[in-house]
Design a protein that fits this description.
It contains 12 helices and 12 strands. It is of the alpha/beta class. It is elongated. The N and C termini lie far apart (72 Å).
Length: 339
C-alpha cells in the first residue's frame, strides 16, 4: 500500500525544516524563489497531495464555493458554471454544484448541504417555484457570504449578478417590430422571478416606444419549457386577432413555439417571427436558426465568482449590497429576419 507523502518527507529529502517546506508550498514571500522551485519539484516527483482538511482547520476556510442551479438540463447554467469554475480554480477554490430541479424543497436542502460542508460562500440562481426565501436568510445568519446570479430577488438585499433583462426584452421586441411584425405576443415565465417580470416590462416598453397598443391577450404565462412554447402558440392561434410574432422568455420556450408553428404549417419567418432569450447553443443549429438575446453566460459566471470572492474576503467587514448588471447583445438569425 502506497504511503501518503507528507511535508516532513519533502523536508527530509531536501535537508530543510518542515516549516520551510510548508511556507514554500504556500508561496510565502519570505522564502526564496530558488527554494520554492526545489520544494515544488520534489513535491511533484513524490506526488505530494496537501491535506485540505488540516489546511482548512488552520485557516478557517475550506476553499469551497457552493453553486446552486435550478437545472442542469439547460446549457445556459453549464456555461455560467464554466465561468465560475475557471476563476475559482485560479484562486485555489473548488466548486460544489447542487441542482434544485426547480424545487423549493430541493433548494432548501441544497443550502443546508452547503452549510454542513462549511463552504466559504454560496452562489444561487433561484428556482422558478420558490416563493419562501427564508433559507437564504439562514445562510446570512450563519455568516456565510451569499450572492445570486441570473435569477435574483432584490427584496432580500442579497448581492447579485444578472443581465439587463429589461433592455434585452426591449431589444428582442424592437427587432421584431423593425422586421415588420405588427402584432407581437410574449410567452412569459413565472412573474415572481425578477428576470421574467423585467422581460415583460421591456416587452411592454418597446411596444409603447413604437406606439403599438398593449393587448393583455398577447401574454401567455408559461413555465420555461418547450411545452410552454407549444401551448403558447396554440393559445394565441385561437384568438380572434392572432399575433404574427412571438418573443419567448427564453430559448426553450421559443424552440417550443417554432416546433408548434412547423407542425401547424405556418412558415417562419415569412408568416410568423420568433425570437428567444439566452443564446443557448442549439439555437444556431436548428432550422430555422433562432434569433435570440445573448446573456453573456461565461462573463456572468466570472462576475459571480468575483462578487462572492470579494464578499468572502470582506467577511468581517460590513459589505454593501451590490447589483452587477451585464449588457445583453441581440443575435439576429433566420427565425425573425423577413426579406
Amino acid at each position: 500500500m502506497k504511503t501518503k507523502i507528507t511535508i516532513s518527507d519533502i523536508a527530509k529529502e531536501l535537508g530543510i525544516a518542515p516549516a520551510t517546506v510548508s511556507r514554500a508550498l504556500s508561496n510565502h514571500p519570505e522564502i526564496s524563489t530558488a527554494t520554492k522551485k526545489k520544494v515544488k519539484a520534489v513535491a511533484e516527483r513524490l506526488d505530494y497531495r496537501p491535506n485540505k482538511m488540516a489546511s482548512s482547520l488552520r485557516s478557517g476556510k475550506t476553499k469551497l464555493i457552493g453553486v446552486l442551479i435550478p437545472t442542469a438540463e439547460h446549457l445556459f447554467f453549464g456555461s455560467v458554471i464554466h465561468g465560475i469554475s475557471n476563476l475559482a480554480s485560479q484562486h485555489g477554490y473548488d466548486v460544489l454544484i447542487y441542482q434544485s430541479n426547480e424545487s423549493e424543497a430541493f433548494e432548501k436542502k441544497g443550502i443546508d448541504t452547503f452549510i454542513d460542508a462549511r463552504v466559504d460562500g454560496i452562489l444561487v440562481s433561484i428556482s422558478k417555484n420558490t416563493t419562501d426565501f427564508s433559507h437564504f436568510e439562514l445562510a446570512k445568519e450563519k455568516n456565510i457570504p451569499i450572492a445570486f446570479f441570473d435569477r435574483t430577488n432584490d427584496s432580500l438585499e442579497i448581492s447579485s449578478v444578472c443581465i439587463d433583462d429589461y433592455l434585452g426584452a426591449f431589444m428582442a421586441t424592437e427587432s421584431l417590430i423593425k422586421s415588420g411584425y405588427q402584432r407581437i405576443a410574449h410567452i412569459s415565465g413565472p412573474e415572481h422571478i425578477k428576470a421574467f417580470s423585467e422581460r415583460i416590462r421591456g416587452y411592454k416598453a418597446a411596444l409603447s416606444q413604437y406606439k403599438i397598443a398593449f393587448d393583455s391577450n398577447l401574454i401567455y404565462t408559461g413555465n420555461i419549457s418547450i411545452d410552454a412554447g407549444r401551448n403558447g402558440v396554440q393559445h394565441f392561434l385561437k384568438l380572434e386577432r392572432k399575433p404574427d410574432a412571438i418573443f419567448g422568455v427564453e430559448d426553450f420556450t421559443a424552440l417550443g413555439a417554432l416546433k408548434e408553428l412547423k407542425t401547424i404549417g405556418i412558415k417562419v419567418p415569412e408568416e410568423f417571427g420568433v425570437i428567444g432569450f439566452c443564446n443557448d447553443l442549439f439555437g444556431e443549429h436548428i432550422t430555422p436558426s433562432l434569433s435570440t438575446i445573448d446573456q453573456k453566460t461565461v462573463q456572468m459566471g466570472e462576475e459571480a465568482f468575483n462578487l462572492i470572492y470579494e464578499l468572502i474576503s470582506k467577511k468581517s467587514e460590513k459589505t454593501n449590497y451590490q447589483k452587477r448588471i451585464l449588457t445583453p447583445t441581440l443575435i439576429l438569425r433566420e427565425s425573425s429576419k423577413r426579406e
